[in-house]
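Quick illustration, no need to memorize.
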Amino acid sequence: MERKAKDRYEVVGIAILDSKHRILSQGGGIPWVISDDRSRFRSLTYGHPVVMGRKTWESLPSRPLRGRTNIVLSRREQTLPGAVVVHTAAQALAYALKSPGSEEVYIIGGGETFRAFWPFITRLELTVVYAEMPLQKGEVVVFPPYEHTFSCVVKREERICGSIPYAFLTLRKSHCTTPPLREETLDGVEG
């Protein structure tokens, strides 16, 4: 029996990025290992569909992500064990909305996938790292500019992992009563 798509749902972008350049990854990998970020990612996405690009799928240390419907957006015709492969953002969203936990659909990367879903994303769950990242050889993937579109700070939690300061941010695009996110708060932690 096919599940019916939900009438009410939210598309959520979730990512870890640096505060200065919005770098998601370089050279095919995430440059930071922050265990609290991984725990947060798992607790937020578990039980919900996750949508990612093919390169993000290939970069996962363990595939598929258990406890979630894994949907991979790809231009290629291919079969990926444990994932559903689609070719458009509309196909990905349609499949996600028929999946368990579809009241929240998580977009987990990479850069092209975030851009494809940008008009649909209403909430961002970000881990913003306040550390200068040395640029390396290889492809650099950058998160879309979000500071003006997602200016409503719902929650902000400052943390430190070793010597790396970072913050968990929950941002919304709609109007809210909390003060807007100011650009200077993204450049680093004042102390």
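Residues 10-181 form a domain with the Dihydrofolate Reductase, subunit A fold (CATH 3.40.430.10).
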